[in-house]
Structures are given as C-alpha cells and as structure tokens.
Design goal:
Rossmann fold; binds nicotinamide-adenine-dinucleotide; binds uridine-5'-diphosphate
Length: 326
Amino acid sequence: MKSSQRQRVLVTGGAGFLGSHLCERLLQAGHEVLCVDNFFTGARESVLHLRDQPGFELLRHDVTFPLYVEVDRIFNLACPASPIHYQFDPVQTTKTSVHGAINMLGLAKRVQARILQASTSEVYGDPQVHPQPEGYWGRVNPLGPRACYDEGKRCAETLFCDYRRQHGLEIKIARIFNTYGPRMHPHDGRVVSNFIVQALRDEDITVYGDGSQTRSFCYVDDLIGGLLCLMDSSPDFTGPVNLGNPAEFTIAELAAQVIELTGSGSRIVHRPLPQDDPKQRRPDISLAREVLAWRPQVPLAQGLVPTIAYFDALLARGPMPVAAGA
Ligand code: NAD
Ligand code: UDP
Ligand code: UDP
C-alpha cells in the first residue's frame, strides 16, 4: 500500500467482539490502528495477537471522556451490545452512546476525520414493518429495560446527522443486525453463545418463550466487510444502511441447528420471554446491495462451524473469563 493511502484509524470499542476483528482487518489492509477501549466487556486478550504489529496501538480510555488524538478515520463501536451487558449499568450505557458520540464527533470535527457509527437494528425496536428498511422509524419502548441501548443509539444517530448538517462532517451510519462468530463473549447471554456453550456442555438449551421469535444472523467476517465498504463509500453516502444477513430463522430452528452441528445430547427447555423482546427481525439489505455492492456470503450453517470450534477451544482451556458487566 502507498503511504498516501495508509490511514491512521481510530477504533473505539476495539477490544470487543466486532472491534477486534475490525482492527485485524484494518491492519491487514496496511492501515495504522489506534484501538481505544475501557475493557468493560472487551478484553486485552482479544487484541493481544496484534500487539507486536508495528501499526497497532492500544489505549485504555472511556469514550464518555474527551479524547485528543490525531486520526484520519474513526469507527465508533464503543458500547456494550448484549442485553445483559447493556442493562448491567443502563445509565452508563446511555452515556457511552450519547456522550461517547459527542466526544468522537467533536474529535472528528477538529481533525476533519470521516466517522462511522456502529448503530443497530434495535433502533427499529419491536418492528411492525417486516423486513425492516432504513426508512422505517421503528417502534421502541422509551421506558423499558432495552431503552438505555435503543434510545442511546437513536440519539447517537441524531447527533451524527446534526454534526453533518451543522458542521459538514463526513459521517456514515451502519445499522448492524445480530452478528456472531469467534471471539463472542461466552457469558454475554446472547442466543448464539448461550446455545453453543450449553450444547457443548450437554446442558439444557434455554429457549425463551415458545421459540417462534425470529432473528437473522450475520457471520462476523461478512459484517466487517460491510463496515469497511461503508467507510470507503462516496462522501455523499451517509446511510443509515442496514448490514446483516437477511436469512431469517426462528430461535427454535437455531437451537435445532446447534444441536445437530455439535452432536449434543442437550434437551430444549423453555424459559420466560424477556420484556420487550422483539418478535421478528430481518434486515432489508437492498440499499447495501445497491450502493455498497455488499451482501453477506456465509450461510448460518457454515458460520456456526468456526464459531462452535472457537467455543470448544475456549471451554477446553478451563473456567471461562467473566467480563465486568456479566
Ligand atoms: P462488545 O461488547 O464485544 O464490544 C464493545 C466494546 O466497547 C467492548 O470492548 C467494551 O469494553 C467497549 N466499551 C464499552 N463502553 C465503553 C466506553 N465507555 N469507552 C470505551 N470503550 C467502551 O460488543 P460488539 O458485539 O463488538 O459490538 C460493537 C458495536 O457494534 C457496539 O456499538 C454495538 O452496539 C454494535 N452492534 C453489535 C451487534 C452484534 O450483533 N454484535 C449488533 C448491532 C450493533
Ligand atoms: N472533543 C474531544 N476531542 C477533540 C475535540 C473535541 O473529545 O479532539 C470533545 C470535547 O470535549 C467536546 C465534544 O468533543 O465536549 C464536542 O466537541 P465540539 O467541538 O463539537 O463542541 P464544543 O467543544 O463546542 O462543546
Ligand atoms: N434467546 C433465547 N435463549 C437464550 C438467549 C436468547 O431464546 O439463551 C432469545 C431472545 O429472547 C431473543 C433472541 O434469542 O428472542 C435473540 O437474543 P439475543 O440476546 O441474542 O439478541 P437480541 O434480542 O438483542 O436480538
């Protein structure tokens, strides 16, 4: 890569599940990476393998406080993403989304950096339009237990749009749908990690409700490809744009697939459905296909294989690490 093309890229939340994969891909592409994380749900171990790469730097920092660095591009991923993590300290979750966005936008404004926000399908809440296109304004309960995350992310989108309108910033908003893969946290309570860990231990698989609710699962490599395409897209294209895999599965179907692929003897048991749990979720990715020429390549049955292998290796190492929020 020519030095003129090499960029200094800030990844907030860089020690998290998606962030660590993103740091890796950016380094592979020849960029310099400044990984900023407060290690709330992420861990140093996730990026330990990158520490000897000359272009990599790790900084412990909480994005709710100002950050003065010189960078060309910013991927703003800092925020706990799984319900048990973001509900552990809901006030801090909103602060991270809102104060974190303000600080990173202020930084982007000062250094004239292009900035991408990791938003979420949760901005659609429990949707009445299916699949969800970007034009749908969503149905979020602003008072419920998921609101700290959903409303924080919605407010961050507003801030990104206003910094563009008011200050002419180059912004990008990705609405990320459920993503899975190696380096997911084993205690994050999310459905893919829970089911795989339960299946590998021959423990009961906990399906919440009757298992008829749906989700669409995107393999991490596909998702990171989408974030990179979006960051490199034309300055006029801001999004929001949905990034996810439109193949939709019921939670009961996912449980059956995990049991089959692990050859587990686990039984399925039912537990109460959490409050405000969306009944269905599937991205309409027409915009990403058209503008970014992006679409996911890895079907669920294929992506589950390396994910299961990762958890298997983790369990073989003994007691699993517990993150701060778990
Ligand atoms: P993660 O919890 O693994 O990573 C988040 C990272 O942010 C962690 O390393 C955590 O320590 C860090 N962090 C949290 N608060 C911080 C703060 N105040 N200052 C600095 N660092 C902080 O989650 P993830 O799955 O990698 O998600 C990354 C981003 O993508 C999040 O913004 C999330 O909302 C978004 N997202 C993820 C998914 C998904 O399915 N994984 C879906 C939609 C959106
Ligand atoms: N900020 C930051 N790094 C910078 C520039 C700004 O963290 O390099 C923070 C700053 O602390 C401020 C926020 O970003 O609170 C918003 O900055 P902006 O310039 O938009 O607003 P103002 O400073 O006028 O409040
Ligand atoms: N879920 C489940 N069993 C579990 C964990 C989750 O049935 O052990 C369900 C959960 O109720 C939801 C879906 O799986 O309907 C996805 O949950 P997750 O927390 O992974 O993501 P989100 O709800 O944020 O999409």
